[in-house]
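Re: that backbone. Tokens:
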């Protein structure tokens, strides 16, 4: 399954936002000079600050677009296909689909609750979840149905009952 185009649109948006901030600042300085009548190029410190602002703003824009695709608010067929490939690959290897964590189950639960709908408040307080946890509210039975085009992947998934047994012995749920 080709995944080469997975991020190219996001990286392009991020790069444009990073370049747009100092460019816009310079254009505004050109049309309304700070020192009166003549345009002077903004100093390097100001341009560095606006570039950092563009970089951070671009990241938040891209993260917001990705979140909308993952939630299904905007076109997400590509992410669905990538998700199905990744999860089926992990299940066929006997791995937990959402990773393992060294944190206690209580801390994993806290991390999941803190970040569950944090994307809705992203413009106010950027809050990102960097913790692997089993609380994704996803029924893994949906990965056992074979959709058109998935036959060629050739994954051999373990029985669903085997997943239930694994999840009861490990710090993992979702089955």
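Recovered sequence:
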């Amino acid at each position: 399954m080709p995944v080469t185009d997975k991020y190219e649109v996001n990286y392009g948006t991020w790069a444009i936002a990073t370049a747009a901030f100092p460019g816009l600042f310079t254009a505004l300085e050109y049309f309304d000079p700070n020192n009166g009548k003549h345009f002077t190029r903004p100093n390097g410190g100001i341009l560095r600050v606006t570039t950092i602002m563009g970089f951070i703003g671009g990241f938040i824009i891209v993260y917001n677009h990705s979140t909308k695709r993952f939630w299904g608010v905007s076109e997400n067929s590509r992410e669905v296909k990538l998700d199905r490939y990744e999860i089926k690959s992990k299940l066929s290897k006997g791995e937990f689909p959402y990773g393992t964590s060294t944190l206690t189950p209580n801390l994993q639960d806290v991390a999941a609750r803190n970040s569950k709908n944090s994307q809705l408040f992203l413009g106010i307080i950027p809050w990102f979840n960097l913790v692997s946890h089993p609380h994704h509210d996803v029924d893994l039975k949906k990965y056992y149905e074979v959709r058109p085009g998935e036959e060629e992947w050739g994954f051999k998934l373990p029985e669903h009952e085997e997943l239930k047994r694994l999840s009861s012995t490990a710090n993992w749920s979702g089955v």
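Residues 1-75 form one domain. The mean pLDDT is 83.
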